[in-house]
């Protein structure tokens, strides 16, 4: 896990943190109430902190939904290869793995030193793909009740609606053609993708206890100084077709491989359902995700609408060529 530029680089023992801020109160409670030998290091995001616990770096994270944390605790206890492949939970001094206070459920995870994977680099793509296949292989059969989540096509349908809500932005900036092209392609490809027996595939995944990570972004893969890769952030973990992870990982790789189609398809040649995988890859839901994320930044005046629209336009021109080329493979 890397230290972000936005982290607050304060370092003090928890007993010294006697201020009125939430972080002060949290670490004071951990020190005095939970009896942790803990030292605050930095704030990663709201309710996510790097700290030192008995001198070892850890991640302390708060959860609004306690079930998201407790599912991970039970899962890691049943996953024999967890220590080799992931940032595992760490117990509190009394041996428990969760504590509740301030309206949040708190957990501790091992800190993984290293850098985030960079999907621009071929070696990082290979390593990420390999560890995801190993994750799917070593976790299948873990018999726990999973948090239910929407099928991928339903999730993408919600994203399409959010995209449609931003139509006026495209009209105002004279980008109607861009909006129409992306919208038409999204609607068409999503309909083709949804028109598959996903109920059967999901039921089969539940029966076989197939687990998927659910968030295969580059920042959830940490590569250490020895070039080993580990997975972090299992908040979206659930039972489902591993095809969902495979499709979304391919979409994460795609912006860096659109001009290297042979290499792209060779990397993903071992898909269990190659036709369904390809149909999923052709849904430009990842472009909508990046657009919506950046649009929220625009509303916060962190970036300009014009530059963000131009970035989307460039990404779409590249993707459009890939879609046209690949559609022939499905005929």
From TrEMBL:
It is an enzyme of class 2 (transferase). It holds the Pfam family APH. It comes from Halobacillus naozhouensis. GO terms for molecular function: transferase activity. Residues 64-245 form the Aminoglycoside phosphotransferase domain. Keywords: Transferase. The lineage of its organism: Bacteria, Bacillati, Bacillota, Bacilli, Bacillales. InterPro entries: Aminoglycoside_PTrfase, Kinase-like_dom_sf. This is Aminoglycoside phosphotransferase family protein. Its EC number is 2.7.1.-. It comes from the Bacteria. SUPFAM superfamilies: Protein kinase-like (PK-like).
């Amino acid at each position: 896990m890397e230290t972000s530029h936005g982290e607050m680089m304060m370092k003090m023992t928890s007993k010294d943190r006697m201020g009125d801020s939430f972080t002060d109160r949290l670490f004071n409670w951990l020190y005095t109430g939970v009896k942790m030998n803990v030292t605050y290091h930095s704030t990663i995001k709201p309710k996510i902190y790097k700290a030192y616990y008995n001198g070892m770096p850890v991640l302390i994270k708060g959860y609004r939904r306690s079930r998201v944390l407790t599912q991970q605790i039970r899962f890691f206890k049943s996953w024999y290869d967890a220590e080799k492949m992931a940032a595992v939970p760490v117990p509190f001094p009394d041996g428990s793995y969760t504590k509740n206070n301030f309206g949040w459920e708190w957990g501790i995870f091992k800190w993984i030193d290293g850098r985030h994977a960079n999907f621009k680099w071929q070696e990082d793509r290979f390593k990420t793909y390999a560890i995801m296949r190993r994750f799917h292989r070593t976790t299948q059969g873990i018999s726990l009740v999973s948090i239910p989540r929407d099928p991928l096509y339903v999730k993408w349908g919600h994203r399409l609606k959010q995209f449609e809500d931003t139509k006026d932005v495209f009209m105002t900036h004279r980008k109607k053609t861009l909006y129409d092209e992306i919208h038409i392609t999204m609607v068409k490809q999503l309909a083709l993708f949804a028109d598959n027996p996903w109920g059967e595939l999901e039921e089969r995944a539940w029966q076989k206890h197939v687990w998927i990570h659910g968030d295969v972004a580059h920042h959830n893969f940490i590569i250490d100084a020895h070039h080993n890769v580990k997975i972090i952030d299992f908040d979206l973990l659930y039972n489902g077709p591993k095809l969902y992870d495979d499709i979304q990982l391919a979409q994460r790789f795609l912006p860096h491989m659109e001009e290297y189609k042979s290499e792209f398809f060779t990397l993903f040649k071992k898909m269990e359902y190659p036709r369904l995988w390809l149909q999923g890859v052709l849904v430009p839901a990842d472009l909508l995700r990046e657009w919506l994320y950046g649009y929220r930044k625009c509303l916060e005046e962190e970036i300009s609408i014009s530059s963000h629209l131009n970035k989307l336009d460039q990404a779409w021109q590249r993707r459009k060529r890939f879609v046209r080329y690949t559609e022939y493979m499905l005929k």
